């Protein structure tokens, strides 16, 4: 649970995001804090489509009856990568190493999901992971705008 949701159930000492000092909420964690914004901006530029403004912008693609299956895999992997990284910070005392740490998690999660896609739908996410992996190895190209 994000800290704002956890606080509804029990007393929470520190309500701030593990990445920054803002109040942690789902919207903040997945879309509004600087690392999430950079991740979504990077993904949007590689996909050629505006992605990751909020949950509604992601949910629209889920309702399209498989039309956006590749986009849905990318979105799901991206959200899961942020969540897993946040939890590793919280429970495993993982240290921040840079945006490439998050982007490589996205790559691995997409690669793990490829088995779920029909053969004719694997090309786009595979090409995307190649681009993202290459970009992640050149962190000077990843700057917040």
- In whole angstroms, the N-to-C terminal distance is 30 Å
Structural class call reads: mainly alpha
The number of helical runs is 7
Q: Give the beta-strand count.
A: 0
| Rg result | 16 Å
Helix content: 55-70%
What would the principal axes of the Cα set say about the shape? globular
Overall pLDDT level: 87
* SSE string: HHHHHHH
Structural summary, described in words:
This protein is mainly α and 145 residues long. The protein has seven helices and no strands. The protein has helices at residues 3-6, 26-32, 34-47, 55-62, 69-92, 99-113, 123-136. α3 (34-47) runs antiparallel to α5. The chain is globular, with a radius of gyration of 16 Å. The mean pLDDT is 87.
Keywords:
145 residues, mainly alpha, 7 helices, globular
Can you give me a brief rundown of this structure?
The protein has 145 residues and is mostly helical.
Write the layout of secondary structure elements.
Elements (H helix, E strand, L loop, with lengths): L2 H4 L19 H7 L1 H14 L7 H8 L6 H24 L6 H15 L9 H14 L9
Helix pairs in contact: 2-3, 3-5, 5-6, 6-7
